[in-house]
Design a protein that fits this description.
The complex is a heterodimer.
Chain A (H helix, E strand, L loop, with lengths): L8 H12 L2 H9 L11 E7 L3 E6 L4 H11 L3 E8 L16 E3 L2 E6 L17 H21 L5 E5 L4 E6 L2 H4 L3 H10 L21 H21 L6 H8 L7 H10 L3 H18 L9 H10 L5 H5 L5 E2 L31 H16 L5 H12 L6 H36 L1
Antiparallel strand pairs in A: 1-2, 1-3, 3-4, 3-8, 5-7, 6-7
Helix pairs in contact in A: 4-7, 7-11, 9-10
Chain B lengths: L17 H4 L17 H24 L5 H14 L11 H18 L3 H20 L3 H10 L5 E2 L2 H14 L13 E5 L4 H4 L5 E3 L2 E5 H31 L5 H7 L22 H7 L3 H13 L4 H14 L3 H14 L4 H15 L14 H6 L12 H4 L2 H10 L4 H5 L11 H12 L25 H18 L2 H4 L5
The chains are: A alpha+beta, B mainly alpha.
Chain lengths: ~425, ~475
């Protein structure tokens, strides 16, 4: 699975876009039931072609138009933008100022690079099983808040293909949210503040908001294995000094001593908890609030969001089922029911599924008579025979929920009109 | 008068419906008025409301909003101008009606530019905040309901279910129990300022907001609605402006400083030049006294100082000839060449008297204008000492003016609202010459109102913006002629 050669991309993409990309599901998503006229036609896509050629304001008339263009241009990367007031590919013909972004899904981008100050195993674009738990925790925490606090129902989580995850919130009302409200949502979800020059990035006040409490409860489930075993954050003086920087100086000596005497991070953490809670009960200190233990856990585990991705209505984000040009991995949807088991290293690469397809096709070709006819049948079944299948299934489940909601809304509306017409008759 | 356009419906207001039409002392101005009024009343209502809003602005600059002094002064302004403010008063129909109509008239005047809109919205918001703050608790729910705000208080059962969460979320709630606190359930997007800072409990897309926090939300709603309404008004403005009766008034309203501008002289020629030194210590406000002293000592003043002081002198009655003589005499003492003065400076003095160029007769600066524009820098003597100087230095200066220590530390109410240096001069002269208004400490000039520690709030910058736009026409062209500066 691991061998992916970027130079093969042009050939692989050709096959991928001809036989594997799930066009009908993709169209079903972005068309949103066709309830609003021209919703799909006014959607902006951007393509990154070979040699880093970037073209914006692509738009398409329907599914077949989309397919043809993608097969013709063979994009290395596909981004999805906003739904505009006019067809994006005609934006130059529109009167100045009249071409406006109107709606878009609320999106989040969580990138492992933003955690470099708290993960010891990797840095920059690298990821490994030891630090992937950060993404697991992020998904759990953010998704819970989006669902339970904000009441958002249609949330699609997608693996970015390399070092992070994206979330697409697709509720009808959410797509209409203003930039200000989007920013507000990100603010609500943010706890870790400060750049390189800030040592202590999380400060909790006397009152703990339910969002914070519930997030801490989620982190607690993972903390021991992730932080104390895998990351081993209290392994040696160099690493535990970083944690001491987050607690008042008055308890440093005591902690240093007990750390020296302990044998592993688990023991040291127990000491820290005891000392910290004793400290909190004794002194009322303004600089370090009453929740030292939690503040450390949050700094090491709480999600870090990029506000710029979420706040702009016209922001372009990598499309699901796009290919990552460096890793070859497909940006696949993540099954929320199995988020703990999700392993980015088992996500199929484009070369892998193309090879799978080749293997199957050679077997089947002998059975087929009419190439043209079977071509269509092929396309609708092809991905099913590859490792892409389970991910498309997750996507379809997401689409079914969207459909159900839409039908529910229509029923409600027609029910209303039925009542009204009964009343007035 | 009648207005065409769908905004103005025609209804006849029956006598006994009077109280029903204005059930509250405050409102969101959702419905435009629908009666006929005379042009005179139209004008008067408009002017009164501009006065009110300017007071709101002034008070907001001079006092911290919400403090007792602010509240009581604002209330007395409202009472004086006969606008509504308090529930449970008798005979409230007329003040409420005035409030309603005048607001809508001002929309016509203030929708015309971004700056005017911002200013109008800011003052109206401050006014609404004040009125809401004195609304009795039992009236609040009624008011919200009548204003069609979707704010519903949740039942006691619902409260108990979420008590812990709500208390843990809202900084405005202390203690561990909710007690009789009303909690309102509103869509989360309507509580942006609360939820973004995690200051409210969110559940399933709703924010559970205690009454104390509802105010901020209401104000935001109000701002949003008014902003939209002003944009709409601007679009239908051409139709309104084509009415000749309204056009001059509407144009004038948004540019007016509604106090006396001290430009029309009843006292022209009554001052002689040799009186000025004495007058400066007796009846000049500190800002002008300072400028005069600097002029005498340095035989020169920079541009800002010449502007502020020169127009003030005009306002107290100096004629053009006197002014020319006054400035020339002083500048020559500073070894300036008389010809240079004639060339560089006398033209400008004549210009400020309206005798050159555009021939605008420039008016003396009001306090607000002095405070908010053109702050003095090194080598300047203009500005407002209460705003622009160090409190310690100010104290010393006042001591040197021989004002009693009690007078210095107390910034007392001198009984009238001071907002113009020439007003200070007039009142002072009146007192000294045995006028009818004998105030508390009649001998020395009172320390006028603006406190030493006038807050520099962001209101100042919005006030400045509106001030600049409204007073631009006074200053236009004047700058060009003052090429000399040193």
């Amino acid at each position: 699975m691991e061998t992916f050669d970027p130079t093969e991309l042009p050939e692989l993409l050709k096959l991928y876009y001809r036989r594997l990309f799930p066009y009908s599901q993709y169209y079903r998503w972005l068309n949103y039931g066709g309830v609003i006229k021209n919703y799909f036609q006014h959607r902006e896509f951007s393509f990154t072609l070979k040699d880093d050629i970037y073209i914006r304001y692509q738009s398409f008339n329907n599914q077949s138009d989309l397919e043809k263009e993608m097969q013709k241009m063979n994009p290395y990367k596909i981004d999805i933008g906003a739904v505009y007031s006019h067809r994006p590919n005609q934006h130059n013909t529109v009167k100045l100022g009249a071409f406006q972004a109107q709606e878009k899904e609320l999106v989040f981008d969580i990138d492992m690079t933003d955690y470099d100050d708290v993960r010891r195993c990797c840095s920059s674009a690298d990821i490994c099983p030891k630090c992937w738990t950060l993404m697991t925790m992020a998904i759990r925490i953010i998704d819970r808040a989006l669902k339970e606090d904000f009441g958002f129902k249609h949330r699609l989580w997608v693996y970015s293909g390399r070092r992070g995850v994206h979330c697409w919130v697709c509720d009808e009302s959410v797509r209409k949210l203003s930039s200000a409200v989007r920013s507000g949502i990100v603010e609500y979800l943010s706890l870790v503040k400060g750049g390189q020059d800030v040592k202590k990035k999380v400060h909790l006040s006397e009152k703990i908001h339910p969002f914070i409490r519930k997030s801490i409860n989620i982190i607690k489930k993972y903390f021991e294995e992730y932080a104390l075993v895998n990351q081993d954050i209290l392994e040696n003086k160099e690493s535990w000094d970083k944690i001491l920087a987050l607690v008042p100086e008055t308890i440093h000596d005591e902690l240093q001593q007990s750390f020296q005497k302990s044998h592993n991070s688990l023991q040291r953490w127990e000491h820290l908890k005891k000392v910290a809670s004793r400290y909190q009960n004794n002194i009322k200190n303004d600089k370090y609030g009453p929740w030292l233990e939690w503040e450390i856990m949050l700094q090491y585990c709480f999600p870090r969001l990029d506000i710029n991705v979420s706040k702009g209505i016209n922001h372009l984000l990598k499309s699901p089922f796009s290919v990552h040009p460096k890793t070859g991995r497909i940006s696949v949807p993540i099954d929320l029911q199995k988020v703990d088991q999700f392993d980015p290293f088992t996500v199929p690469t484009i070369s892998f599924i193309c090879r799978e397809l080749d293997a199957i096709s050679t077997n089947e070709e002998e059975k087929e008579e009419n190439e043209a006819e079977s071509d269509v049948k092929h396309r609708t079944r092809d991905y099913k025979k590859t490792s892409l299948a389970p991910y498309v299934k997750v996507f379809e489940h997401f689409l079914e929920n969207l459909d159900k909601s839409r039908k529910g809304e229509l029923l409600k509306k027609s029910g209303k009109t039925l009542c009204l017409s009964l009343l007035s008759s | 008068m009648e207005f065409s356009g769908r905004k103005w419906r025609k209804l006849r207001l029956a006598g006994d419906q009077r109280n029903a039409s204005y059930p509250h002392c405050l409102q969101f101005y959702l419905q435009p008025p629908s009666e006929n009024i005379s042009l005179i009343e139209f004008e008067n209502l408009a002017i009164d409301r501009v006065k009110l809003l300017k007071s709101v602005e002034n008070l907001g600059v001079s006092y911290v909003k919400g403090t007792e002094q602010y509240q009581s002064k604002l209330e007395s302004e409202l009472r004086k101008l006969k606008f509504s403010y308090r529930e449970n008063l008798e005979d409230e129909y007329e003040p409420r009606r005035r409030d309603h109509i005048s607001h809508f008239i001002l929309r016509l005047a203030y929708c015309q530019s971004e700056e005017l809109r911002r200013w109008f919205i800011q003052q109206e918001m401050d006014l609404l905040r004040f009125r809401f703050s004195i609304l009795p608790k039992d009236k609040i729910q009624d008011f919200l309901k009548d204003s069609q705000l979707q704010f519903e208080a949740i039942s006691d059962e619902e409260k108990t279910l979420r008590e812990q969460e709500i208390v843990a979320s809202s900084p405005s709630l202390s203690g561990l129990k909710l007690g009789f606190e009303s909690i309102y359930k509103i869509p989360f997007a309507d509580a942006l300022d609360l939820f973004r800072g995690r200051k409210v409990y969110l559940e399933d897309g709703f924010a559970y907001v205690p009454l104390k926090d509802i105010v901020a939300i209401i104000l935001n709603e109000f701002r949003a609605k008014l902003s939209k309404a002003l944009a709409l008004t601007a679009r239908s403005l051409p139709a309104v402006q084509s009415d000749e009766r309204l056009q001059p008034l509407l144009n004038h309203l948004s540019h007016s400083y509604t106090g006396q501008d001290y430009s029309t002289q009843g006292n022209v020629g009554k001052i002689s030049l040799d009186q000025i030194d004495l007058l400066s210590t007796k009846s000049f406000p500190p800002c002008m006294r300072q400028l005069h002293k600097a002029l005498r000592e340095n035989h020169h003043l920079r541009h800002g100082g010449r502007m502020q002081y020169g127009l003030f002198l005009k306002g107290i009655g100096l004629t053009l000839e006197q002014a020319l003589q006054f400035w020339k005499q002083e500048f020559i003492k500073g070894k300036m060449d008389p010809d240079k003065f004639d060339k560089g400076y006398s033209y400008n003095i004549r210009h400020s008297f309206g005798k050159e160029g555009k021939r605008t007769d420039y008016t003396p600066f009001s306090c607000l204008k002095i405070i908010l524009s053109n702050p003095p820098s090194q080598g300047d003597y203009h500005g407002c000492p209460f705003r622009h100087s160090d409190p310690e230095l100010l104290k010393q200066k006042l001591q040197s003016y021989k004002i009693s220590p009690g007078g210095i530390s107390q910034v007392d109410d001198c009984g009238f609202s001071l907002n113009h240096p020439n007003q200070f001069f007039c009142e002072s002269q009146r007192i000294l010459n045995g006028g009818k208004d004998i105030k508390k400490e009649p001998i020395q000039p009172e320390t006028p109102q603006p406190k030493p520690s006038v807050q520099k709030t962001k209101d100042a910058s919005s006030a400045l913006a509106s001030l600049n736009s409204s007073l631009e026409m006074d200053m236009e062209g004047l700058e060009d002629y003052f090429s000399e500066d040193s």
